[in-house]
Amino acid sequence: MHHQEVAPPAALRDSVQCFWYDRLDFGDRPASFEVPPDGYAEIIFYVGSACHLATPTGWQLLPSPFLMGLLQQPARLRTQDRFEIIGIRCFPWTVFDLLGLLPAPGNVPLGEHPIAQLQAPLAQCLQAGNVAAALAQAAHYFGQVRSRLAGESLLGKAGQAMRHATGKLPVSQVAAAAHTTVRTLERNFKQAAGHTVKNVSSLMRFEQVRNHLLLHPAPNLARLAQHLGYADQGHLNREFRRYSGTTPTAFARKARREGPPWVPILSRLSKRSPCPAGSFALLIQFPKSCY
Q1: How far is the CA of 188 from the CAs of 161, 199, 202, 217, 278, in angstroms?
Q2: DSSP 48
Q3: Using CA atoms, how far apart are residues 239 and 50, in angstroms rounded to an integer?
Q4: 133: which residues sit within 8 A by CB, 6+ positions away?
Q5: Which of 115, 155, 183, 235 could serve as a FRET partner for 138 with CA atoms 20 to 30 Å apart?
Q6: Structure pTM?
Q7: What is the mean pLDDT of residues 264-274?
Q8: What domains, with CATH codes, occur in the chain?
């Protein structure tokens, strides 16, 4: 299996969840696949065929690198032939600070950003088959960037509390964990991430539901809703449909029907690796809707 993940160095752990690699061979026919929302932002470098994003006006070319920010609905991508990726899975409240950019919704081209200088050396490493060197170069670059930023902060404390509770804490408790007021937290969080604490927490919980359905395609949704802090099963159903476009039941039914291709992913999830499978890495490895 081509997928590889490495944990970030200690200096980056408050900003980056992990560095990862994947390779796909689609053949000479275009293939499309969906990437659902989750609680991460992904900085993506790719080598190989061009990658396009579905938009209301048609397929838009994505440069390498690009930032896939927090999604509110699944994104559909299309490529073909060989497609290799180096991904940096970031926390949404730190990614724009890490890049020195103002928050922006959706996908952000980074072709003119200083980070683009990594494209050529990463491509060289991948063309030589040296994935470990590519991941190490990415980690080294971001380690240097992070060393120039402020250390422990209000957002770092808030983010740590949100991650530990997997999105289940109300905003008041997140603020208490950060030793600040709700108003100050919300203002700083929105300025840094472009989203509210509540929105990011909702995406974190959605990701937990999605991963649970992949591991257990015949779930007790009422019990799951209670465990993850939803008001009731109806609340879970509404939020899941909001972010996925389908119901938990339909998603679980598809997971049961298409179980075999997901086995490697389920194995990785069940081992509780230090780097949870984000949506981009999770779905790009086994595209479901190729044509």
Answers
A1: 16, 14, 18, 38, 25
A2: E
A3: 33
A4: 125
A5: 155
A6: 0.85
A7: 42
A8: 4-150+278-285 (2.60.120), 154-270 (1.10.10.60)
